Amino acid sequence: xxxxxxxxxxxxxxxxxxxxxxxxxxxxxxxxxxxxxxxxxxxxxxxxxxxxxxxxxxxxxxxxxxxxxxxxxxxxxxxxxxxxxxxxxxxxxxxxxxxxxxxxxxxxxxxxxxxxxxxxxxxxxxxxxxxxxxxxxxxxxxxxxxxxxxxxxxxxxxxxxxxxxxxxxxxxxxxxxxxxxxxxxxxxxxxxxxxx
Amino acid sequence: xxxxxxxxxxxxxxxxxxxxxxxxxxxxxxxxxxxxxxxxxxxxxxxxxxxxxxxxxxxxxxxxxxxxxxxxxxxxxxxxxxxxxxxxxxxxxxxxxxxxxxxxxxxxxxxxxxxxxxxxxxxxxxxxxxxxxxxxxxxxxxxxxxxxxxxxxxxxxxxxxxxxxxxxxxxxxxxxxxxxxxxxxxxxxxxxxxxxxxxxxxxxxxxxxxxxxxxxxxxxxxxxxxxxxxxxxxxxxxxxxxxxxxxxxxxxxxxxxxxxxxxxxxxxxxxxxxxxxxxxxxxxxxxxxxxxxxxxxxxxxxxxxxxxxxxxxxxxxxxxxxxxxxxxxxxxxxxxxxxxxxxxxxxxxxxxxxxxxxxxxxxxxxxxxxxxxxxxxxxxxxxxxxxxxxxxxxxxxxxxxxxxxxxxxxxxxxxxxxxxxxxxxxxxxxxxxxxxxxxxxxxxxxxxxxxxxxxxxxxxxxxxxxxxx
Lengths: 196, 469
Ligand code: SF4
Known about the structure:
heterodimer, A: 8 helices, B: 19 strands, binds iron/sulfur cluster
């Protein structure tokens, strides 16, 4: 995982609630055995018509959002299937941060594991951001260390879990962190075996 | 000791490491693996020269994209790669695999309980959100992403934030002809798809106690559709009786000892939950969803709602969008909605009792002309049992297709697809846009309701069909 401290990016508004992972990446693309290359399938059914042509009215297809890296969306983002292909697709497309009033639990975790910063922000603030990003070009700077979002006249702070924050900032591989607890895991297994 | 919920007891039993400001490190007792969410996890292990720590606590099957046709030939080359990849991974890392030609093959959440792998008090994970199914046995079972799959393979542990606890207490009894599926759909319709977010739910109350294990699985299966991380039911004699004699269950004296421990896991009298919801089972009628998430539904006796009748602008918009996708007009009676396809299957409703209920409705009748109806047993064992009872004959005589086991039309990753614009009565758990195929329209129902829809070509209240009484 790459260390994540602060970065500035272009905001893309997705004014929908309950966006499920089937929409983020439809299941016909889940058959690959690699992690890369899912970006082209992101929001496939919203981005492309049945003949594979781009639908002009979908936000990601609008030229003003080319190169976007911050997605701002409605409530309960990422609900439904636990597929990690959803964060992989978002990441492969170029998103580094997703801001929403709330996320589905598994999706939120999956983002964290892949170095996508999922930020919960009050609904009113999210609505303000969506409105601003729809009307004009909005660039925001996300600072994880200070837990702030700034730009376009906005200045918001956000909550972050201290443990996740540390992993993010240092770019730590969670399995390696866990393996430092090997003694405790073995002791647990021994105790278990004895009880059985 | 203060009274504890079963959720707290299991959690505490698996705690390896706790530190302020961090999630807990939990031990995982059972890791179920399937072809779709595992390849990248094994790839990660190889890249980092890591092993599977406990292959003996890991069990794999192929279910999501396998064909359900007799010859089980996969035409799609990419599916083939995914299946071959799992075979190779299981071989390389020493994991037992219920491959497509084995009598143990089936949907991961169906075979876990069937083989006795699923037991009370366990922590169970799988790279699939409907892992919550296993909670029916009084286990903490939840879906994980592929990174977590890799983490569990490598360490047999997971970092987990202690969730809040919720009790959903179902008083009274379900009426005749009302299924467990109707109960969980009604709960989600009433409280919404995010009510459980951040919680593990325990289902309690008389109505839950009176359910069979298979019905309990249907309830816990759909906990995730209410947003919950997991759902469970305290073990009782019904649980013990189900597990006895299964392949991976303890045997003889060890079983009696285990059973005693399992029963002691049940939530203590007076234990506190962070939130409690109570509902009355007697009020629940057979359900049909009309929208594009599982909360958008109601009674079969009702009609398609008017978007303007919803309280918030957001809801109104969402309902409008859903009705446009579903091609439904407000005010249409649910019974008048015509059906093109019927799917009886999935980890929600593909067990033997589900098939029996559907067969009871189908017996001696015929699928309405123009309707395609599929019955896909959840596992090879169920298929065999059903054939022993002659259910396959009932179905095929009535014009249903009788298939091999797998996820099939629940998510349409194989060739079992609902064509665009067609309307399906499905016993699965998700009615999202495109779930059963691009442009497909899904109505979630119980097995009996699905069979009845197949025969009549539109929804009917199963309580009005003589056979059910
Ligand atoms: S049957 Fe459907 S919900 Fe269940 S595991 Fe398979 S795809 Fe998932």
